[in-house]
Write a structure and sequence with these properties.
Helix content: over 70%
Distance between the termini: 44 Å
Shape: globular
Number of strands: 0
Number of domains: 2
CATH architecture of the largest domain: Orthogonal Bundle
Number of helices: 6
Length: 102
């Protein structure tokens, strides 16, 4: 994968989101299985950041392999501090607010 191709792809997706076509572009580009995998990956990141369950419990809860959870954990270790803060604010703080509003 070339960096220029990746950047063009990210720019394309960002433009779609900017024009409120996020659902359309993701449905166009991702199969149902890929969309489910993306949902699972977000759940993994959320649970790892939240810290409420350990990796083995997460594996059981999501019905996935431990290697998938480990990959998510390893990827999370590589993010910048700023991005990690954003992830925490977006995934954890937002959910606490949503839970209180229900």
């Amino acid at each position: 994968m070339e960096k220029d191709d990746w950047q063009q792809t990210v720019n394309f997706i960002q433009q779609a989101f900017n024009h409120n076509y996020q659902f359309d572009v993701l449905k166009l580009l991702l199969t149902p299985d890929e969309r489910n995998a993306l949902i699972t990956r977000v759940k993994i990141v959320h649970a790892l950041l939240d810290g409420s369950i350990n990796q083995r419990q997460l594996k059981e809860h999501l019905g996935i392999g431990i290697a998938t959870v480990t990959r998510g954990s390893n990827s999370l270790k590589e993010v910048s501090a700023d991005f990690r803060t954003w992830l925490e604010q977006t995934l954890i703080d937002k959910n606490h607010v949503d839970e209180h509003n229900q």
